[in-house]
Amino acid sequence: MNEDRRVGVWLVGGRGSVATTAMTGAAAVAAGLAEPTGLVTMRPPFTDAGLVGLGDLIFGGHDVVETPLAIRAARLVDDGVLPVGLPGALAGALEAAESEQRPGITGREARIEPQASLARMVSDLNAFRTRHDLGRVVVLNVSSTEAPVEPHPAHENPAALMDALDQNLAVLPPSALYALAAIETGCAYVDFTPSVGARLPAIEALAEAHEVPLAGSDGKTGETFMKSALAPAFAARALKVRSWSGMNLLGGGDGAALADPARAQSKLDSKGRLLEEILGYPVEAPIYIQDVRDMGEWKTAWDHVVFEGFLGIRMKLQFTWEGCDSALAAPLILDLIRLAALALERGESGVLTNLAFFFKDPAGTREHQLHRQYEMLERWVLQKVAA
Amino acid sequence: MNEDRRVGVWLVGGRGSVATTAMTGAAAVAAGLAEPTGLVTMRPPFTDAGLVGLGDLIFGGHDVVETPLAIRAARLVDDGVLPVGLPGALAGALEAAESEQRPGITGREARIEPQASLARMVSDLNAFRTRHDLGRVVVLNVSSTEAPVEPHPAHENPAALMDALDQNLAVLPPSALYALAAIETGCAYVDFTPSVGARLPAIEALAEAHEVPLAGSDGKTGETFMKSALAPAFAARALKVRSWSGMNLLGGGDGAALADPARAQSKLDSKGRLLEEILGYPVEAPIYIQDVRDMGEWKTAWDHVVFEGFLGIRMKLQFTWEGCDSALAAPLILDLIRLAALALERGESGVLTNLAFFFKDPAGTREHQLHRQYEMLERWVLQKVAA
Amino acid sequence: MNEDRRVGVWLVGGRGSVATTAMTGAAAVAAGLAEPTGLVTMRPPFTDAGLVGLGDLIFGGHDVVETPLAIRAARLVDDGVLPVGLPGALAGALEAAESEQRPGITGREARIEPQASLARMVSDLNAFRTRHDLGRVVVLNVSSTEAPVEPHPAHENPAALMDALDQNLAVLPPSALYALAAIETGCAYVDFTPSVGARLPAIEALAEAHEVPLAGSDGKTGETFMKSALAPAFAARALKVRSWSGMNLLGGGDGAALADPARAQSKLDSKGRLLEEILGYPVEAPIYIQDVRDMGEWKTAWDHVVFEGFLGIRMKLQFTWEGCDSALAAPLILDLIRLAALALERGESGVLTNLAFFFKDPAGTREHQLHRQYEMLERWVLQKVAA
Amino acid sequence: MNEDRRVGVWLVGGRGSVATTAMTGAAAVAAGLAEPTGLVTMRPPFTDAGLVGLGDLIFGGHDVVETPLAIRAARLVDDGVLPVGLPGALAGALEAAESEQRPGITGREARIEPQASLARMVSDLNAFRTRHDLGRVVVLNVSSTEAPVEPHPAHENPAALMDALDQNLAVLPPSALYALAAIETGCAYVDFTPSVGARLPAIEALAEAHEVPLAGSDGKTGETFMKSALAPAFAARALKVRSWSGMNLLGGGDGAALADPARAQSKLDSKGRLLEEILGYPVEAPIYIQDVRDMGEWKTAWDHVVFEGFLGIRMKLQFTWEGCDSALAAPLILDLIRLAALALERGESGVLTNLAFFFKDPAGTREHQLHRQYEMLERWVLQKVAA
Ligand SMILES: NC(=O)c1ccc[n+]([C@@H]2O[C@H](COP(=O)([O-])OP(=O)(O)OC[C@H]3O[C@@H](n4cnc5c(N)ncnc54)[C@H](O)[C@@H]3O)[C@@H](O)[C@H]2O)c1
Ligand SMILES: NC(=O)c1ccc[n+]([C@@H]2O[C@H](COP(=O)([O-])OP(=O)(O)OC[C@H]3O[C@@H](n4cnc5c(N)ncnc54)[C@H](O)[C@@H]3O)[C@@H](O)[C@H]2O)c1
Ligand SMILES: NC(=O)c1ccc[n+]([C@@H]2O[C@H](COP(=O)([O-])OP(=O)(O)OC[C@H]3O[C@@H](n4cnc5c(N)ncnc54)[C@H](O)[C@@H]3O)[C@@H](O)[C@H]2O)c1
Ligand SMILES: NC(=O)c1ccc[n+]([C@@H]2O[C@H](COP(=O)([O-])OP(=O)(O)OC[C@H]3O[C@@H](n4cnc5c(N)ncnc54)[C@H](O)[C@@H]3O)[C@@H](O)[C@H]2O)c1
Ligand code: NA
Ligand code: NA
């Protein structure tokens, strides 16, 4: 496998903001048109880890809309996410990725014909691998956040799940069908969204059985990233957090999706667990997401933290975080692809808990402190290199 | 020495806000009238380290004003620093500390009669130790920040320094004379201010010679504390900080002292070094301190951070920190006393680099990342216990 | 009537934060123990308008809880709303008000026995007037915000309404029954809450018929106050507001009441109309209220305003408003009492549109610009004096 | 004169950010390529006042650098001030303005050869007027802020001033020489900067004598604009402002100029007078300007306002204003040109106090309340139309 450094990357939600930014950015950095700012794995100590080069990634993907990538990229320029002129300069790369986009699974299809949908995904992934003669393929979900799924007995074990699918029962949302397709075709599966994806006992068991690595979930890019850096500081100083309120204004496709309260719930769940885990006591910590269409691809989070110091005195930290979500997410996507490809190369399977650094709701661990997560990541990447 | 758990604490600036809050708070926590919030050493894993109890501290101090502690405490109640009724409930403890306050060295005395001033301090410290039959005494500087000192050849080695003092040359500010007195009488010396204190080669050498421990300098309580928690997060994520501007509004005695640009300079110097150390590249990072008398004991810092993410996109973090400086500083003072007493007990001497966690400008180390400093502290306290 | 300057004040929600703060504060200012800060009518040009003195107000009220005013005031001291020691110094005034508190109408009573409840209120008000031999009485609603009422045909005219009450139909919430009682007994009725109160065609007609003045609704104390000052500035400068998002964190009784989405709706409705009225075009302007119990009597509002300037460039204003709601509301309550008493003295009846300055949702006018509302107030108070 | 609607506009600092943005924007709006957002005089009621059309402005100017306008405009595109593609689309207009740029007066020239410098300016202005056969010419200063001038007896009356210039004494900075040149050639003179310009008794007297109108000074675009909108709201509500601290971060040419403390002083002086005028009592109101080169054309102001409400309770308003200074200033420049041209048309001379709305330090009036200033403006523009 070492002879072939190329890695296939299959993005679910391949025509979305994050996906388009990630593909354009990978090409730009590979071509020397941009610095690798925001890419964790392009800095020491990770530069020595032999990770796949950005120029060796072959992109494809599933989506349920058909907006050409060139149009999507042009809109991202208008919204200030991509530099003026960049998509034009990388037209070849965008065309190549365009030719590898395939129709994904709609919510309706997942309910009505799950079996056929899954088969179609499996066939798309196999064809992609064959067409490009790829050893390693990483499937990464950056499609719109789904509503939480209803619990169902078929979620509990592989046999029951396969049975339910054979009967065409509507037990899985698209994200889980994509995860299954990845597993069946020997691809790594990474979930950057809070959707269910691979996070069901039945699917985790299948991943172990097929010996593919999994990682997730929900990319940590803004307010939660800040929380995971700041809450440990309060803990270290024995300052007692009394309330930590987080109000988020966001637009874009993501803002619209999260305006649906059911979907927002997925997101809030994955954001909410962290403070108590870090601080060791329950905190009044409301989180709210407001869609503000006019904000486009930008987001402002305001956090209001009341804490108690010596002799019970109340003090306050407030912050605002004004970020471009896709610009924050895209380099992490590329990091995750490189790291998942490393896991494939090493033959690791099951949940990659050492990737917690990237996620709001890290699978397989309760470690939420950013610096500890970074240390986990370093150890995982480097120890194996050493070995 | 283990028989006598009592520790003498000599506060330079003993009638100031921080000193008064620390003494009142120690008595309150010892009496069970308040929780030890903000006290790092009263939480695991430090609770098992056998540190001196707050009730076993005997307080005294030097100051250049004569405002009775009871009056100072009453003002701190008015300003919302101390809970209503608390000084009254602890009148005994405040009276005891009052009876141990002595006139300190004014700037004028340091210039005109340094030799005699030093001798007076030495005699005060010896008398304090004898009066209470104390094994261990910690001298801690919480007096007003001094202007930076002019470099002088006598600063370079002990002999030259002693010589200069013998000739009554004005080569040392009060903080350094206090440090010398501590060293000569076998006390630990901790500098919570950015004043020069023990930070001259000649004085550090004397501390080694007298085998006393030193720690400093400049307590890290607000904006810098935040920086040392947040800058590592930017670094870990490969986000490039373009500018980090910090504007500080503060009142109180400290605000007035820092309204003097020369003194503010001491403070700004000790705040400025950190970002580049953590991030590894120079950052445009202006810091400004504004005295706003009306703010009393309160402080608001506003930080405006512009950073660059993927493909050069500019994003922003802003925070405001609304703190009561004395409430933030006082528990750290008590932590430092307990830890310096531990160093005395262990017979450690010279600069205690492992106390970097507490300081803006940690002596003897360039480690500014809060979580690494915390780990250094843990290792230092616990490894020795284990041994 | 001029001989008797005394005015009766009947507070619905008489044991709440706002009511208790208003009564304590009136006594404090009257006794010279506090400045009249925040009282609009105690500054020129209103000082010459011959308004009733704060010492000439006789307080009473209805509430559905029985917490003694002394206890409520003590809690307000703990929460930093009232100065330490003040309730003690004014014990006499609080006792006098305590002896005039009567059980109000619960939601259940309003549904089950509206007729009897109304009669009880009428009798309480008449007794109060007689007991103190009062010429003028002002009823002011500062009770918890109610959920919006279901429309009902009986709301449209007095006859239908009286008919429905005769049949004991559940067509009115408590606030409206209080308004009816005020009208029937010749009292002015002011609504400081967004509850329905007198804002039904049937009740407004009855007020006209009984020749009593009405004012409301929903006191303008924080975010909306800021909006009514700032939005006119954007308009004057031809800057186009693209979005104005307002996130509110509040605790206290009010926070808890507004945690009920139905009640919050009343509040949001009355806040939402203003921007479009001032700017002249629709604006994306979400408002959200979050209960944060830990914040007690304090509130922080964060507003995030994106506006467009020359050549379409996007710019931003953000503000946080950290206020104590009861401290902001109480002086306005006293202003409104004095002004309603003036209306009674002048024999004005119906909706007092010139009091728009005080309200989020001013009855009888669409004028939301703060400075215009101030001018309306000035003209109304002074022109009549001149006449 | 009515036959010729064209107006000559001579910008001092004609190659700066504000000037370039104003010229480009005027052409863009005239050509229908942009909305007149931010232009006060393009909205009712000013649309009926018969003001000169933006397409009828002929631009020229003085500067001490020679950067071509096309290059300056391209940089403003990079900095996000001008839309991508706009300067290209308006190349003709920029070339026309380029051909009318002339070398201005450097500080050195103003000291060494004031007489000759003044003559050169006069000749440039006369030539401009003749070349384009212009009835009305407005000179508007948007050059870098100068340091405050030393008082000199020659400033007091025209004769003394002329005398001093005849002797080539260094008594006037460039801005004042430009003002003199404007006056001598019958042009209106508007000062958008805090430099001395026409604000000397001698120069004001000369303007009266030559019957030319003057306006100034220091464009009100950001923090001060906010203050003039907000401070009246505090006053109207009888809330007592205790401190109002304003910290400004700015880059660009202006940031660099103001990094010079002497020049910053001019700016701070003109910002500082306002609060006391509006509130009627002195307020602790520090203002600070920090150059942050990395911020380019953008500015962030943070204001921290502590106010006192009922019973002395302390509350807080904080705001951040993130603006693009040139985008805020440019439309005001165009408004001022149109209004100064109106004054010329009407034959008004001396200080135009009714333009206070546009200035931090309005000449000839102490009215700082934004809404009152707007009313003054409306009355001035419209009453004359009516007449
Ligand atoms: N940007 C961040 O900082 C960040 C952080 C954490 C998580 N996320 C998550 O990443 C995801 C993508 O965000 P985005 O900003 O690119 O959103 P987006 O709306 O721009 O893109 C989502 C794409 O998914 C497609 N899609 C929807 N349903 C699909 C389906 N069933 N199958 C295949 N494709 C489907 C959409 O058509 C769209 O093209 C979201 O779920 C978001 O919550 C983003
Ligand atoms: N509070 C914090 O968060 C914090 C953080 C870092 C450093 N510090 C430093 O701690 C020190 C104390 O702060 P504070 O708020 O208590 O100030 P303060 O003004 O209330 O107290 C300082 C005291 O030092 C006394 N003093 C002045 N010169 C002296 C001298 N020559 N000898 C002895 N005493 C002298 C003063 O009379 C005063 O009583 C300051 O230097 C401050 O910069 C405080
Ligand atoms: N404080 C402000 O800035 C502000 C501004 C606008 C409106 N308001 C409104 O003022 C009202 C009072 O606010 P608060 O902070 O004093 O709340 P609070 O909860 O402290 O007091 C409300 C009081 O009303 C009583 N009450 C509830 N139902 C009642 C009924 N049916 N009859 C009589 N009394 C009843 C409660 O028992 C309580 O004592 C709220 O409706 C609030 O929305 C307040
Ligand atoms: N932009 C705003 O919001 C705002 C508000 C109020 C005042 N102002 C003032 O407007 C002025 C222009 O601001 P800017 O951002 O365009 O600055 P800038 O630095 O971009 O432009 C100033 C121009 O003036 C030129 N100049 C310097 N000295 C000169 C002289 N003696 N004669 C002729 N030209 C000279 C410079 O070469 C430069 O081209 C500044 O004084 C600023 O303080 C701007
Ligand atoms: Na998005
Ligand atoms: Na309340």
TrEMBL record, chains A, B, C, D:
<comment type="similarity">
    <text>Belongs to the myo-inositol 1-phosphate synthase family.</text>
</comment>
<dbReference type="Pfam" id="PF07994">
    <property type="entry name" value="NAD_binding_5"/>
</dbReference>
<feature type="domain" description="Myo-inositol-1-phosphate synthase GAPDH-like">
    <location>
        <begin position="222"/>
        <end position="326"/>
    </location>
</feature>
<dbReference type="GO" id="GO:0008654">
    <property type="term" value="P:phospholipid biosynthetic process"/>
</dbReference>
<dbReference type="Pfam" id="PF01658">
    <property type="entry name" value="Inos-1-P_synth"/>
</dbReference>
<dbReference type="InterPro" id="IPR002587">
    <property type="entry name" value="Myo-inos-1-P_Synthase"/>
</dbReference>
<protein>
    <submittedName>
        <fullName>Inositol-3-phosphate synthase</fullName>
    </submittedName>
</protein>
<dbReference type="InterPro" id="IPR013021">
    <property type="entry name" value="Myo-inos-1-P_Synthase_GAPDH"/>
</dbReference>
<dbReference type="GO" id="GO:0004512">
    <property type="term" value="F:inositol-3-phosphate synthase activity"/>
</dbReference>
<dbReference type="GO" id="GO:0006021">
    <property type="term" value="P:inositol biosynthetic process"/>
</dbReference>
<dbReference type="InterPro" id="IPR036291">
    <property type="entry name" value="NAD(P)-bd_dom_sf"/>
</dbReference>
